[in-house]
Amino acid sequence: MFDSLSDRLGGVFDRLRGRGALSEDDVRGAMREVRIALLEADVALPVVRRFVDNVTELAIGQSVLRSVTPGQQVVKIVNDALVEMLGGGTAELDLVATPPVVIMMVGLQGSGKTTSTAKIAKLLKEKHGKKVMMASLDVNRPAAQEQLKVLGEQVGVATLPIIVGQLPVEIATRALNAAKLQAVDVLMLDTAGRLHVDQALMDEMKAVSAISVPKETLLVVDALTGQDAVNVAQSFSGEVDLTGIVLTRMDGDARGGAALSMRAVTGKPIKFAGTGEKLDAIEPFHPERVAGRILGMGDIVSMVEKAAATIQVEDAEKLAARMSKGQFDMNDLRTQLRQMQNMGGLGALAGMMPGMKKAKAAMAQSGMDDRVLLRMDAIIGSMTVKEREKPELLNAKRKIRVAKGSGTQVQDVNKLLKMHQEMAKAMKQIKKMGGLKGLGALFG
Ligand code: GDP
């Protein structure tokens, strides 16, 4: 599901993620890629436009939370916008009415309508303890009524006995009576499909709807048909009052265009996703989980949500081990900076770290606040992997580049290098003194 879209977006965010600071250009560049990814996923153009505009505006205007990077915050904004685009909350079936509550299933032939009818019946029976009956009103396709009967036997749900020669409205009337007599909770009417949206189909559907007064009218569409599925939904909703969409074959849908555009274009919620041929391969459609699946970054999203002071214990231990061996490169400094943010910024850190006391005093003197931590993080983020390990590789030209890349000045880069030197020196002294016992505890 959504594999190709997921891969594309993953790539965009990986490039943003490591950054300590994001410029407007970064955001706009990333959004250009998001736009292409969504268009390639066959999402409707107006939906893509609205989405990208929203996200861009939010991402550029935001203030940076402590303990997450701006890149991570962009992931969260995109996640929220996706959830919104998918319909916000989960749209549940509304079955609150005097039984038998009728669910009318409509759709084109081959969309998976009959299979979905049986899947939902099974779900209602097993998960909601409902007594369900199914009736096929499809008198056009010879084997249609037979097919529903077989499926009914497989899922253990009663089907209305077949009487050859009856018309759809007659079958519906008979089904309602039978359902009442047998104290059925939910009656599912599987209407006839057609190859195309045509007037005869619409008229029949309206007639059945008029006499059965369904609480839910669910349109079944095939996710693999992309924007066609959305167009079909538009045509149907002009004729009957659809209460929801069942999107089938999501299991094979790597692009996701129908799922992503459906709500925004038609205003109708997707209530179920078909995820395979088996009769239990159906899921209620949860926008949050789907967005999570598309982005594959649930970890970051929840982290930003908490934005809480959590120290990454593992990193801290690794760092302590390296420090007591006298090793301290830019990567270590970065870990340290992030921990400082997590621990409550500069103020909370006074005197805890060898070398830091002096650096902190210098910072305070020059009026630096906690934003400086993010800026330093960004400077390190703009260095190459080699430079982070060996900062002495940075020549004048590279310093200019790094400053530009991180949205800072060369003097900021120099200050950071100086601070690193002092800290590295302090680490060496610690090693000479035989290591710092309990240094790890400082971070743990
Ligand atoms: P109808 O003509 O709309 O009633 O379509 P059917 O219910 O007969 O389904 C047509 C085919 O699609 C069958 O082979 C189903 O097994 C298959 N199908 C239905 N839903 C799904 C789904 O969610 N995933 C997959 N992979 N196949 C499905």
List the helices and strands and how they pair.
Elements: H1 3-17, H2 24-40, H3 45-61, H4 70-85, E1 101-107, H5 113-128, E2 132-136, H6 144-155, E3 158-159, H7 168-181, E4 186-190, H8 199-212, E5 216-222, H9 227-239, E6 244-248, H10 257-266, E7 270-274, E8 282-284, H11 287-295, H12 298-306, H13 313-324, H14 330-342, H15 356-365, H16 371-381, H17 385-389, H18 396-406, H19 410-432, H20 439-443
Parallel strand pairs: 1-4, 1-5, 2-3, 2-4, 5-6, 6-7
Antiparallel strand pairs: 7-8
Helix pairs in contact: 1-2, 2-3, 3-4, 4-11, 4-12, 5-6, 7-8, 9-10, 13-14, 14-16, 16-18, 18-19
This protein binds guanosine-5'-diphosphate.
The site of guanosine-5'-diphosphate has 18 residues, from helix 5.
EC number: 3.6.5.4
GO molecular function: 7S RNA binding; GTP binding; GTPase activity
InterPro entries: AAA+_ATPase (IPR003593), P-loop_NTPase (IPR027417), Signal_recog_part_SRP54_M_sf (IPR036891), Signal_recog_particl_SRP54_hlx (IPR013822), Signal_recog_particle_SRP54_M (IPR004125), SRP (IPR004780), SRP54 (IPR022941), SRP54_GTPase_dom (IPR000897)
Keywords, separated by commas or semicolons:
disordered C terminus, 434 Repressor (Amino-terminal Domain), elongated, 3 domains, Rossmann fold, eight-stranded mixed β-sheet, 57% helix, binds guanosine-5'-diphosphate, Four Helix Bundle (Hemerythrin (Met), subunit A)
Question: Considering DSSP H and I runs of 4 or more, what fraction of the residues is helical?
Answer: 55-70%
Distinct ligand kinds: guanosine-5'-diphosphate
Overall number of strands: 8
Largest sheet: 8 strands, mixed
Helix tally? 20
Q: Tell me the CATH superfamily of the largest domain.
A: P-loop containing nucleotide triphosphate hydrolases
Order of helices and strands: HHHHEHEHEHEHEHEHEEHHHHHHHHHH
Unreliable spans:
307-311, 348-355, 435-444
Estimated radius of gyration: 30 Å
Dominant shape: elongated
- Span between N and C termini? 40 Å
Overall structural class, as computed from helix and strand content, comes to alpha/beta
Oligomer state of the chains in this structure: single chain
